Amino acid sequence: MALAIIEAFPTIEIIHNAALSEYTNTDTGGPADWLAFPTTVAETQRLVQFANQHDLATTIIGNASNLIVRDGGIAGLVIILTKMNTIEVQSDAIVAQAGAALISVSEKALDESLSGLEFAAGIPGSVGGAVFMNAGAYGGEISQAVTSATVLSTTGEITVLDAIELDFSYRHSSIQDAGGVILDATFTLVPGEKATIKFKMDDFNTRRAEKQPLEWPSCGSVFKRPKGFFAGKLIHDAGLQGYTSGGAQVSMKHAGFIINIGNGTATDYLDVIKHVQETVFDKFQVHLETEVRVIGR
After folding, report:
1. Would you please indicate which residues are annotated as catalytic (active-site) residues?
2. pLDDT score recorded for residue 1
3. Mean local confidence (pLDDT), 145-158
4. What are the tens digits of pLDDT across the range 42-61?
5. pLDDT for residue 2
6. Domains along the chain with CATH numbers
7. What is the percent of the chain where pLDDT is above 90?
8. End-to-end CA distance of the chain
């Protein structure tokens, strides 16, 4: 397989037995059997088709900001899309490839005096990951701006899905159910006053810096908001801030975050998550469902 995959894609950067801890925001995660960095849609499509033809499991990753890769790593082929990062303005719309940083898209909207992505100014994810999970913050969600997305199916076909077909709901899109790879997304925005847009973005970023432990490696907000509650408050009220397992710790700055305080592993993260879920349920009979994706062996 080593010779076959390298010979098949001589122009694509492909790494064997790559440590995924170098690419995740938690600085944790075991090795990928094969790690590829395509730069075009065609390369991504060919990689997926090659993997199907050779019965090679395929996992697609953006910038791994809301992801925990288990310490056993990931079998088969892992594709990271961060080199597919073009952002184009088309009148009042922005078309961004999946690997583009969502922050960069919001900054492009600001440059063009387009409103609708202010809430995304500090979200560290990629466009693909943000659409996949309908990312949101400060009352805004991706579903409010995305009108279509180009998707590569698990069998290698490319289709365009509109907002209805993407079936957005809280931290959910249809891609989670059907599988496939988001290749790009179209954000339809509205003209606005540049100063007003910048004020909102600066305000959100200031609030984020004040309340979130941005100085530490983390996977962002770990838990979904349970109906009628706030995850961070439940964790705080359960006295769990500062709880530590190995190198993973419930942040003292924001109870909804788990940070890597040094040499943490994915297992440490999962141990903390389990303890938080069990403790909150014991105290309040509320089950905290993870927002972060957990993958790997």
Report:
1. 171, 221, 291
2. 59
3. 94
4. 999 999 999 999 999 999 99
5. 57
6. 2-80 (3.30.43.10), 87-201 (3.30.465.10), 215-295 (3.90.78.10)
7. 92
8. 20
